[in-house]
Amino acid sequence: MKPSRGYYSLIQYCPDLxxxxxxxxGVLLFCPERGFLxxxxxxxxxxxxxxxxSHGHDWKRINVFKxxxxxxxxxxxxxxxxxxxxxxFIARRANRLQITPPRATKVIDPEKDLNELFRQxxxxxVPRPSAKSLQAWIRDAIRTAGIEKKIRPNVKVEVPVxxxxxxxPFAFQNGRFNLLYPVGFPSxxxxxxxxxxxxxxxxxxxxxxxxxxxxxxxxxxxxxxFRPGDLDSPVRVRRVLEENQVRLYRADELAMLIDxxxxxxxxxxxxxxxxxxxxxxxxxxx
Length: 286
Prior knowledge:
The protein is an alpha/beta fold. Helices cover 35% and strands 27% of the residues. It folds into 2 domains: 4-121, no CATH class; 134-284, Trna Endonuclease, Chain: A, domain 1. It has 8 helices and 11 strands. The strands form 2 sheets. Strands 6, 7, 8, 9, 10 and 11 form a 6-stranded mixed β-sheet that branches. Strands 1, 2, 3, 4 and 5 form a 5-stranded antiparallel β-sheet that branches.
């Protein structure tokens, strides 16, 4: 295939616009001849943490900005037809996610070329876990981060509304006793992911509203593993969970959760048993 003339820009997070210091978080590729305009941003914020530390950032807002650039370029694709159009779009950027001036490049297969630019310039520093290894992957991340003293493993609590016991692999204390529940959402159908989330929404609301006799106030955290490229399910699952006092961290947001545990979690003394005294002996897993 004959090469076409294209342009690429870096997408950068700049916490202080006056200092011009930035961390690369994505790549944009524009090929006017092919009508191609697309951005790809990092699935984690590890580069930002590496450059500027892990404190003082609004991670949720940064993720919204990254997703917003991808969505905005997809919507603007029909209106940005020339290099001048793209430069005007870039000049209108006013938040902490900036786009560098376009640089010329040869384009053969736009989608593959964008992925290759991303791999070379950004990469993804946190590998995606497989569904079977999610719990072990989280355990390894906790060990690597050196926060084992803040984590209590294999906690059993009763869900009052269901009158049954569940076992949660990880928990930490920061004013509430927070239960960390790894959950896979492998379906390509967002409706099925939402249906699965409803189970945890019911459990989480009940846990949040009833004080536990051993651990006090509780909150359920779901660490969700979604299909690569699934942008709809995480949004819909988050809405269902958060309306029921359950917090969601995607697997690729684990670094943010670990940072929260490091900053707010209390050291927990080891105990011989974390079993609650349930009215029903039936247990349920993730």
